[in-house]
């Protein structure tokens, strides 16, 4: 397959981010890093839920435990930096064919060159994708459908976090909702035919511990009445988690044979760690040891994407300090994310907003 760079590369929609934020019980003035401080001071234990043993990663699981990915094809959104880059790098090192989809071709080229230095024979390519523009999502799907025999894994990773002022997408949606959630919803729907050509397809959707405090604001989904950047981020990441769980339910009902799994990276050192005022700025400038490195933050996603025991409908993340860091394990699914009725309502609305419908049953 030739090196892919779309000539109609879209302008950068925002920084890809994997930084997870705090749940609602942390005072809003503390912002995204409040939970880390509380966890460090109080020594909060893991919040992972108790699930059946086969779903639980073995102690100390890391990239050395990944089975060979030779012969498998992956699409990783936001793979030019942070968690997405580390995910793409590990999959390529394990023999997988990886397509990085992001907004900036130059950064894509740099990511591919960097991966190639560590894995000289890595099969990594770039595709331009602006998740804030549904036309760009559609164009990517059309190009890949024409170029690939199948798709074995879709990693819905890219995102933006807390623009200080309300921004809207090319289609008129609040930008965090558009990039983090709706663009991935539409991409997954359009990748479904390629995914179903795989014998063991997986869709991994990256959420955040911010989802714990999230609410789906059906009365003001686009935050047009009053913009709250953190609440909008929480909503988008809750929507991602709900989508992952609902996709598994619908896959089971329709016979898609897809494992849909959610992951979150805890709180990791990525290019989102910008200098801010108040406690956020202090923590990020002076307490870097509280943030785990990006390669550690990528482990839950890699486990979900490659481990034989990673079951559909589960949620993986770090297990220490209130899930902000540590070894891979089962993450706590907040009650809001487990509400199947609300998830179905959001799904129907998302199909309307994106003008894309998932099939209701598998076709041969």
Topology:
Blueprint: H1 34-42, E1 73-77, H2 82-93, E2 97-102, H3 105-118, E3 123-128, H4 134-147, E4 153-156, H5 175-195, E5 202-206, H6 229-254, E6 259-263, E7 268-269, H7 278-286, E8 292-293, H8 294-297, H9 299-306, E9 315-320, E10 325-330, H10 340-354
Parallel strand pairs: 1-2, 1-4, 2-3, 4-5, 5-6, 6-9, 7-8
Antiparallel strand pairs: 9-10
Helix pairs in contact: 4-5, 5-6, 5-10, 6-10
Would you write up a description of this structure?
By secondary structure, the protein is an alpha/beta fold. The chain has a single domain, classed as Rossmann fold (3-Layer(aba) Sandwich). It has 10 helices and 10 strands. Strands 3-2-1-4-5-6-9-10 form an 8-stranded mixed sheet, sandwiched between helices. Strand 1, helix 2 and strand 2 form a beta-alpha-beta unit. Helix 5 packs parallel to helix 6 (229-254) and helix 6 (229-254) crosses helix 10 (340-354). The longest helix is centred in the middle third of the chain and has 26 residues, at 229-254. It starts with 33 loop residues before the first helix and ends in a 10-residue tail after the last helix. Residues 1-30, 35-53 and 272-278 have low confidence and may be disordered.
List the keywords.
364 residues; alpha/beta; Rossmann fold; eight-stranded mixed sheet; 10 helices; 36% helix; 13% strand; globular
